[in-house]
Amino acid sequence: MKTALVISSYVAASRVGATASAFCLRRLGIETIVIPTTVLGRHPGWGAPGGQSLSAEHLRDMWAAIKAQNMPIDAVMTGYLADDAHINVAAEIIADVKAANPEAIALVDPVMGDHGKLYIPESRAKAIIAKLLPLADVITPNAWELSYITNAPALTLEDILSSAAGLNIAALVTSVPHKTSIGAVFTDGPARYFVYHDKFDSVPHGGGDSLAATFLAHLLLGDLRRDALAKSVASIFAVLTAAIESDAGELPLIREQDALLIAKPLPIEIL
Question: Which residues, at least 6 apart from 80, have a Cβ–Cβ distance to it below 8 Å?
């Protein structure tokens, strides 16, 4: 059995951050360890979230104890980092995991903004780019985050392919517009795959966390990258569809968990 370590927010009553990503990984058979960067009651989009972020020393203490268990770790996934100092800790953890297992996958979800603006301080966004992206085997930005990272437009599929080509990092880019649809692109050098589906007017938070985790799970299970893309996008599309149909405010991951396992893969376009 493969093991993944997730460094992200824990949000008790919302299906976002590690609350979503850890569930997706575990449902697909991946042993999952979580180091929470925050402990919150709910997503701040609902109002005051309660709880607090954890200090970098809390994260280091947790990692020291986990490392002392000598558990083999096959992947590290970073998500929401609530403090600039969390970035240094995440970089240290990735380095430790890679030293113990050079084949381990480092997936960096550069959670920093959407819809034309940052929702973390600019200093933190710049530090993620400078310190974490160079350590990543794959990154999972949304289209706006890709634009911010590359300082290039990302309004069309062609824009995104051009921007991603200059990264020299494998990238799964989400929220990619295509005519009246929306989808996800995976790029890694000459390999470029695109999967898209109907566009929703509005969806619950957590889709990006869930997609990144589901994609990582399929990689750990041995799927080819294009198959991991098709399966993960199909699964999260099915969950989002169920959310819209039932007017759910949160992703119905528990109710729709079978979609993580049996959703029919969406067609892949090789670009």
Answer: 8, 9, 17, 37, 38, 111
